[in-house]
Amino acid sequence: MPLLDDHELLGSPESDLADTRGTPAEGLAVYNKVKHMLTTISKVGWNESTVSIKYAANFLETCPAAQEFSDGYLKQIVSILLDQEHVKLQSMANTGGVEKKCVEDSLSFSVQLIATALAMAVADPTRLSPNPQLLTLAQIFDPNRIFYVKPKHAYGSTQSNDNFRKQLIKTFLEYGGAENLAKYLSTLVSSGFDKCGVEMDHIALLVDGLDQALKFHVKLAKTQAAVANNNSSVANP
To answer: Which tens digits make up the pLDDT trace of 183-209?
Structure first.
């Protein structure tokens, strides 16, 4: 298995890793493998990034090992993922863009995990501060991360990948993350931001992401109401 440059991932990705739930025991084995890679060479495998985050998201509420892994290593994994150029991943030969899907699946599982972690923190004040997942979420919401932007060397019709960032915000909303983030930030306001271990720039990213999520929610509600009214008019001419 060749070693790649810093901030890249190792191995050959598989395309069907999101289809199985796994077990806590399987998760523990993957967590240990990923922790070893991150602590010894500061890298992680394509497959291991997806599987480890998926298992941690699935078992966060019931498995202390999943909580310990996500608190200690999710931020580092997400940072590596967001340092990938989406155009380069999409164009990798002989894989059909599986690398890009691997990053997208990993980030989607991360958003689900963080939404759950925030719900747990709101329910249990002892987990409120400091919360390591706030920094990770701020990274995911940051529109200037490499995975979202149009590469400087790209030409022609190449687009940014910001729509995927917006999809992640939508997923965060669907998992109840926006409501619990609002509650969490409200708690920080009353207790003092200096106690949460998150800089104001990161808080600004979180608030902006929350604003986008709420705007999407309002837009969706209006669309659903319009469709319902239209259906009612058709049914009762």
So the answer is: 888 877 776 655 556 677 877 888 887
